Structure formats: structure tokens, C-alpha cells
Amino acid sequence: MGVTQRPTIKTVAARAGVGRTTVSRVLNGSPLVSDEARAAVQAAITELGYVPNSVARSLVTSRTDSIALVIPESESRLGSEPYFSAVIRGVSNGLVGTQLQLLLTLVRDQREKDQLTRFLTARRVDGVLLVSVHRDDPLPDLLEKLGLPTVLAGRRSPDEPLNHVHSDNVGGACEAVRHLLERGRNRIATIAGPLDMDVGDSRLLGWRDALREAGHRAGDELVAPADFTEQGGRTAMRALLERSPRLDAVFAASDVMAAGALAELRRQGRRVPDDVAVVGFDDSIIARHTDPPLTSVRQPIEKIGRTITELLLQEIEKPGSARHNVVLPTSLVVRDSS
């Protein structure tokens, strides 16, 4: 059986249907390439798993002394969601005492995704931290193919092969629902997170598990998925009240969505917690400033940021070391909303 040849600029050019000069220009970030040619070359690089020879030669001997924190979300999400700022603080704390620079990268559209792909393919960072992972995001697969040290905050599925750190999302959601059951609530709805994210799936699973464990029905009419935004929480709460006007409690998969739910309940004249109890998830600063203050599942967000950084530093120092899957515990903080 023959040895599989490492892809070269020539094979990339052939796959993309362009000349080798064009491939070189794309690799070097030259503007003298059409968008169509650049897209074709980038697709070929990804498909073939091509790593430039100069990069391959330098892997053992040199480093960039920088890592990328990649957040595939908009500036509005970054600014309005306390989760991200807490992760960034944790990452910064994890880098104290090192010489590494942190590059914060938002990926908001396909152009920025292509630009990031070129940047990472050229090995311009020593490793990548990836936050807010969606199931169909091709970036983790690319990073694995490139052999670039990578750690995820979250995971794509329970079978995630890359190093990752996440909270006990199932257990935290279970604890939230058990708390509501203990308070005598018996028609408990949920505002779920995005179902293309494991965090959304896992918190929904925790809600279902706790209800079924208590002998309650976990019907689909009590589930309204949203997008981790305040407006999403408002809209989901409105839909739940239309479908199940007799509901007496809501578990929201984030504090931001819970704040939206509180606003909608107030608009519709429902008293919290007298008529409807509300529990969120994160125990962010938002939970302490809602009216009434929000009961919430505390997850150690800064510790997530610090832990993914520590794991990445280990991977950079010892490439190919054992894979890590770290699950951090959660706890329930009870306030007036429940």
C-alpha cells in the first residue's frame, strides 16, 4: 500500500481550479485575488487539510506567542450577555504570568469566517479557545484537521472529541425544576436555549428529567425555544402563556431570557412569584437586579474561562497529550422570583 502524500500547493490549485500563484496569494492574504477564487482555494485547503510547508517546518522551532479566543456571535450579543465578559475575565486570569497575547475574534458572517480560516490555516496563533459552540459549526473540525491546539467552552454533543469544559447543565436544570416542584408548582414550563447547541439541549433534558422523575408530564406545549436574548425570552414567554395560560412556573435557560420573561409576565398582569415563579440560569449580575430578584442556577463562568486556558497551555506545551472533558458543578441561588 502506498504512502499517502501530503497535499501541496499544486494539489490545492488543481482542486480549486486556479493557478499556484493564486493559491500563494490567498495563503499570504494578498488582496489581488477575486472573492470567487479565494473561496475556491479556501474550500480546497479545508477539504484537503493542507498545511503550508513553511508552517509545517516551523511548528517545532517557533511560536507566535499568541492565542485566539473565538466567539462566533455579534457585538450586540457580546455586549448584552454577561456570560461572555465573565469568560474573557477567566481567560485573562489564566494567562497571568505567561508571555502570551490574547486575540479576541468575533465571527459574525461568512466573510469573517473565511478570513479566520485563512488566519488559522497559516498557524498565526499557537492555539484556539472557542466559545459558544453550535452543532453545525465547521470550525472545530478544521482546527482538529490542522492539528492546532484547541479547547472548547461547551461542546457540540456528548461525543465531543476535542478538549472541552462545560458546566453541569443537565444537573443544574434538574435542581432548578426540583426547587419549583418543592414550592408546590405543578405546571412548569421552560424557555429553552437554541436547540442547535448542546447547552440548549442539555438544559432542556434536565427540565424533562426532573418533571418525569416527579411523575409530571413534560409536554411540548410547555417548551418554547429561544436564542439567549431578552427579546427571545419575551417572545417565548408570550407563546407559553398563549398555549398554557394556567402555567405557574417557568425555568429559563439563561438569566437574560428570564429577564425577558419577567417583563412579559408583568405586561400581562401576572405577579411573580405569586402567579408564576421564575428561575434562570447563570446567576449573572442580571439576576440581582431584576424585579423581583431572580432565583438562578449559578455556573462558574470565570472558572470555565480559566480552565479552558489552562488546558490550552498544557496542550501547547505537550501536543497530543490526553484529551480532557471537564464538567464543573452548579448550584442554585434562591431569591424572590421563586
From TrEMBL:
Coiled coil (UniProt feature): none
Q: Which SMART domains match?
A: HTH_LACI (SM00354)
Q: Name one GO molecular function term.
A: DNA-binding transcription factor activity
Q: Name one Pfam family in it.
A: LacI
Keywords recorded for this protein, A-Z: DNA-binding, Transcription, Transcription regulation
Per its record, how is this protein called by name?
A: LacI family transcriptional regulator
Which superkingdom? Bacteria
Instruction: Give the HTH lacI-type domain ranges.
Output: 7-61
> InterPro entries, alphabetically?
HTH_LacI, LacI/GalR-like_sensor, Lambda_DNA-bd_dom_sf, Peripla_BP_I
